[in-house]
From TrEMBL:
GO terms for biological process: lipid catabolic process. It comes from the Eukaryota. One of its GO terms (molecular function) is hydrolase activity, acting on ester bonds. Keywords: Hydrolase, Lipid degradation, Lipid metabolism, Signal. It comes from Gossypium trilobum. Belongs to the 'GDSL' lipolytic enzyme family. Residues 1-25 form the signal peptide. InterPro entries: GDSL, GDSL_Est/Lipase, SGNH_hydro_sf, SGNH_plant_lipase-like. Transmembrane segments: none annotated. This is GDSL esterase/lipase. Pfam families: Lipase_GDSL (PF00657). PANTHER family: GDSL LIPASE/ACYLHYDROLASE FAMILY PROTEIN (AFU_ORTHOLOGUE AFUA_4G14700), ZINC FINGER PROTEIN.
């Protein structure tokens, strides 16, 4: 089952509108995320069970064949770049990636199934968690420093846009599944706190590595995705998952506001589109759909 194509694209556009409002985008992007932003990294992870190689993936992109994106067309990361006039960052594992390509287009480290926590999505066998993506970015910065020198690299990183868009897998493919120990080690409140403590440490590491313009995306109504609806005998949204998304967004918004106020020469912002996306789901006719299909 998959989300209706137009709903998926609209979700991307809504998130972008929030992200770019009041932000001057410069040079390149460094993308950290999950399947919403993966442009092919998992395609190069041969043992990964999170693969976008099924029918319908890629049908509206390029030659119409699967290309590593978990969507019919462009990902959130693709649309952000296109909407701001920036190049689309290639996947980190793309064999054609070089220092010159990085300087021209940035890098996308996003990985389907990845989460804020290392343990999230473990049954996918291979995926990049956010910690792993940050580690890969550290190596990228070393390459650029060797090529440009420290001063030029600091300027390059300072002008780049950093996008962090993940978190739903930490609930759907971790906390809400009893096969993971996190599901019984925490309750709803303490698990969100655990995520925020981890995310704060990760964002501070990115800041130490040169990130000065950073946007963290919140979660949409994840209880309404097909994977959650199928768990209900009525096919309706899972309210607990949606409430967890709202709790995550509230905590993340407060976290980003605090970091933005105390980090020197930095702009750390949070993009929350939960209510707008929820309205799309509940009132599809207002957006050109008669029904949000699950096919």
């Amino acid at each position: 089952m998959k989300l209706n194509v137009r709903w998926s694209c609209l979700l991307c556009l809504v998130l972008i509108g929030i992200a770019i409002e009041g932000v001057q985008c410069k040079v390149v992007q460094f993308i950290f995320g999950d399947s919403l932003s993966d442009v092919g990294n998992n395609m190069y992870l041969s043992k990964s069970l999170a693969q976008a190689n099924l029918p319908f993936y890629g049908i509206d992109f390029g030659n119409g064949l699967p290309n590593g994106r978990f969507t019919n067309g462009r990902t959130v990361a693709d649309i952000i770049g296109d909407s701001t006039g920036l190049p689309r960052p290639p996947a980190f594992l793309d064999p054609s990636l070089t220092e010159d390509v990085i300087l021209e287009s940035g890098v996308n480290y996003a990985s389907g199934g990845g989460g804020i926590l290392n343990e999230t999505g473990g049954y996918f066998i291979q995926k990049f968690s956010l910690w792993k993506q940050i580690e890969l970015f550290r190596g990228t910065k070393e390459l650029i420093t060797n090529k440009l020198g420290k001063q030029a690299t600091d300027k390059f990183m300072g002008e780049a846009n950093f996008v962090v868009a993940l978190g739903s897998n930490d609930f759907i493919n971790n906390y809400l599944m009893p096969v993971y120990s996190d599901s019984w080690k925490y309750n709803d409140q303490t698990f969100v706190q655990y995520l925020m403590e981890t995310l704060q440490n990760q964002l501070l590491v990115l800041h130490n590595l040169g990130a000065r313009k950073l946007m963290v995306f919140g979660l949409g109504p994840m209880g309404c995705i097909p994977l959650q609806r199928v768990l209900s005998t009525t096919g309706q949204c899972q309210e607990r998952a949606n409430k967890l998304a709202i709790s995550f967004n509230k905590a993340a918004s407060q976290l980003l506001a605090g970091l933005d106020s105390r980090l020197p020469n930095a702009s750390f912002m949070f993009g929350d589109a939960y209510d707008v996306v929820d309205n799309v789901i509940r009132n599809p006719k207002n957006y050109g759909e008669s029904v949000l299909r699950k096919n």
